[in-house]
């Protein structure tokens, strides 16, 4: 048809000739087209055939990703567990308590497992009733101002949004908090309340541990009543020779020791937190499991006299792609004092450079090792284990079996018992005397445990957090830290030193930088300047609580230089003596002179007979403070000690609001609480 059409477009050809030419062309073209079409069809058919034959080959079955089994229910069924203990942990304590509870279960013919809620799908809680005598326990720490810990954030979000039917779920909650904070045990209380709202059955009352008091004793007291309630509910009894009144875990090793006599040292951990050789081959993004090695470029003493050592450090984060905002925290991973590590090795007669691994005996556990392995004992005791804090009672109880002196063994067991006499002994001999594991080994000559078991029992050395003392607008490639070294004499006459601050003190910049590297990462904060620079700010930061405000003031100064309207900034600080520890004196004076700080008030608490604190400065300026809050919609920021200062400052604001707002005390308290809810009263405090 195409050729006929094309021929029809040739009007100069005569009809007879045209017909003859059509016959000739049709014949030749027909052969050509038929051959071409046949060839193309054959090729297409064969090609298509091959493509279709591929699925007929043996298929690889699509299964769940092997990286993580998100169903804790399936894991419990597979391993014969019926108790799961979830933990929301920021410093490792809640995780430790969860492990102890899961281990306890064996004494009652039950099998437990500790679980990180971040690793599982918590919507499966509705299916837990599929397992006989099942129970979910939640050890939930509260972080910051009533927030969930990082690993429990997804669980918290799910609880808020969930509309699940948990009527078949049996549960119990133990919360870890600190009464010096405004929102004491908020996370534990919320989980307990919310699970009940979703229909779950509480089989034992909510436990509220207070780290400002004796968290260990609170946990033991709750646990010794918790297990009888479990036994009664399920109709089971304790097994083993021990009396059920003691409620201790069986002496079951969780890890087995493997000594490596012939190992490739390139496969041995030397202090890395996650990926092997990550300190040699740094790759962003940087976080808790992949910290950045920042070089200390400046380390200077801030105070001019006195016994304390206050310091300003600057960490270089160039080329790291790390971003931070004023008010964020920098987390650093410290190292234990080498002299303490060496003394432990000497007392236990151990070759600290032996390469070993501690492998979990539970092959189904997600946690294969208590710390990165293989490694040396020296590395474990230096970078991975906490050897400076007083050990908890479960550590003493398990170590007691290695004391050859019966008196020492009995003393250790008594301190780990739930009896009032034992609790009092633990409080006085361990906690109040600040005896760490080295001091206990020194004071109990017959106690010589295998070092591998000791390493299994000691908790992990945690990162230390510092409020960043700089603005990224002014210092995009550096993070500043303001800290005071911790050093004190214990009741036994020993000199105890803070792990991180003394480690940082010795991080002096050198030419090659190898001795001044700090593993760090950023932890985001809600402690933020107002969105509008024209909003007034009231900052209260005694001592090293000044740190985030140096960043705030730097940023407001930068904004002012950019032509932004920056209005009232009231700053109240405090130190012991003006001549000794007035931190950042020159910087503050300059900012005040330039108008970035409209009011600078500093209390020197020990320079006169009557002590003067930041709350006194607030009262002195109470009329102006109220004007800034009431008329200027000022934002209030408090940083420093939670136990006394933050509470006293808050009470002072109650008084100011009551006086100038013509309110009663209850109304004034409610007014300040609403400021907090609206984000106009922010806290960055520690105890």
TrEMBL record:
GO terms for cellular component: cytosol. Keywords: Endoplasmic reticulum, FAD, Flavoprotein, FMN, Membrane, NADP, Oxidoreductase, Transmembrane, Transmembrane helix. Pfam families: FAD_binding_1, Flavodoxin_1, NAD_binding_1. SUPFAM superfamilies: Ferredoxin reductase-like, C-terminal NADP-linked domain, Flavoproteins, Riboflavin synthase domain-like. It is an enzyme of class 1 (oxidoreductase). Residues 83-227 form the Flavodoxin-like domain. The chain crosses the membrane at residues 25-46. Its EC number is 1.6.2.4. Residues 289-530 form the FAD-binding FR-type domain. Its cofactor is FAD; FMN. InterPro entries: CysJ-like_FAD-binding, FAD-bd_FR_type, Flavdoxin-like, Flavodoxin/NO_synth, Flavoprot_Pyr_Nucl_cyt_Rdtase, Flavoprotein-like_sf, FNR_nucleotide-bd, NADPH_Cyt_P450_Rdtase_alpha. Coiled coil: none annotated. GO terms for biological process: response to hormone. It comes from the Eukaryota. One of its GO terms (molecular function) is FMN binding. PANTHER family: NADPH--CYTOCHROME P450 REDUCTASE, NITRIC OXIDE SYNTHASE-RELATED. This is NADPH--hemoprotein reductase. It comes from Fulmarus glacialis.
């Amino acid at each position: 048809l195409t050729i006929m059409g094309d021929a029809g477009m040739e009007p100069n050809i005569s009809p007879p000739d045209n017909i003859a030419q059509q016959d000739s062309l049709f014949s030749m073209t027909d052969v050509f087209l038929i051959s071409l079409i046949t060839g193309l069809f054959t090729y297409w058919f064969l090609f298509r055939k091959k493509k279709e034959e591929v699925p007929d080959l043996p298929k690889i079955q699509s299964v769940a990703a092997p990286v993580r089994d998100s169903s804790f229910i399936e894991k419990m069924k597979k391993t014969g567990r019926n108790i799961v203990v979830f933990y929301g942990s920021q410093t490792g304590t809640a995780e430790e308590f969860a492990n102890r509870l899961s281990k306890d279960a064996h004494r009652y013919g039950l099998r437990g497992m500790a679980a990180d809620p971040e690793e599982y799908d918590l919507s499966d809680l509705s299916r837990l009733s599929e397992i006989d005598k099942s129970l979910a326990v939640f050890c939930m720490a509260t972080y910051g101002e009533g927030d969930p810990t990082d690993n429990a954030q997804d669980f918290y979000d799910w609880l808020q949004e969930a509309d699940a039917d948990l009527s078949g779920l049996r549960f119990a909650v133990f919360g870890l908090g600190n009464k010096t904070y405004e929102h004491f045990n908020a996370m534990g209380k919320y989980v307990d309340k919310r699970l009940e709202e979703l229909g779950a059955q509480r089989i034992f009352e909510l436990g509220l541990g207070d780290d400002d008091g004796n968290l260990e004793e609170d946990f033991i007291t709750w646990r010794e009543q918790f297990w009888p309630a479990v036994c009664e509910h399920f109709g089971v009894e304790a097994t083993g020779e021990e009396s059920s009144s003691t409620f201790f875990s069986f002496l079951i090793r969780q890890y087995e020791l493997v000594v490596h006599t012939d190992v490739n040292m390139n496969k041995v951990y030397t202090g890395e937190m996650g990926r092997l050789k990550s300190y040699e081959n740094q790759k962003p993004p940087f976080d808790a499991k992949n910290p950045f090695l920042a070089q200390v470029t400046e380390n200077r003493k801030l105070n001019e006299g006195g016994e304390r050592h206050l310091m300003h450090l600057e960490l270089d984060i160039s080329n790291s792609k790390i971003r931070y905002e004023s008010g964020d925290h920098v987390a650093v991973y410290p190292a234990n004092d080498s002299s303490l590590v060496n003394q432990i090795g000497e007392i236990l007669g151990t070759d600290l450079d032996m390469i070993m691994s501690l492998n979990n005996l539970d092959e189904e556990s997600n946690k294969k090792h208590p710390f990165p392995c293989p490694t040396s004992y020296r590395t474990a005791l230096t970078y991975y284990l906490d050897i400076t804090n007083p050990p908890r009672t479960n550590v003493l109880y398990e170590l007691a079996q290695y004391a050859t002196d019966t008196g020492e063994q009995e003393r250790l067991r008594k301190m780990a018992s739930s009896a009032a006499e034992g609790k009092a002994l633990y409080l006085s001999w361990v906690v109040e005397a600040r005896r760490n594991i080295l001091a206990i080994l020194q004071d109990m000559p017959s106690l010589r445990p295998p070092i591998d078991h000791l390493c299994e029992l000691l908790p992990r050395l945690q990162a230390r957090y510092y409020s960043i003392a700089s603005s990224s607008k002014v210092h995009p490639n550096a993070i500043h830290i303001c800290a005071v070294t911790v050093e004190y004499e214990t009741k036994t006459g020993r000199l105890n030193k803070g792990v991180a601050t003394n480690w940082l003190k010795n991080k002096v910049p050198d030419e090659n930088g190898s001795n001044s590297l700090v593993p760090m990462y950023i932890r985001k904060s809600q402690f933020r300047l107002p969105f509008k620079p024209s909003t007034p700010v009231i900052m209260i930061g005694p001592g090293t609580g000044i740190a985030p405000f140096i960043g705030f003031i730097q940023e407001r100064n930068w904004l002012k230089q950019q032509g932004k309207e920056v209005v009232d900034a009231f700053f109240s600080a405090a130190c012991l003596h003006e001549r000794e520890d007035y931190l950042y004196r020159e910087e503050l004076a300059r900012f005040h002179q330039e108008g970035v700080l409209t009011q600078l008030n500093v209390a020197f608490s020990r320079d006169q007979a009557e002590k003067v604190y930041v709350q006194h400065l607030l009262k002195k300026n109470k009329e102006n403070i109220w004007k800034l809050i009431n008329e200027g919609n000022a934002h209030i920021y408090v940083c420093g000690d939670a136990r006394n200062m933050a509470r006293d400052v808050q009470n002072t604001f109650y008084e100011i609001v009551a006086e100038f707002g013509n309110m009663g005390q209850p109304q004034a308290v409610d007014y300040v609480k609403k400021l907090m809810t609206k984000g106009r009263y922010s806290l960055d405090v520690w105890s």
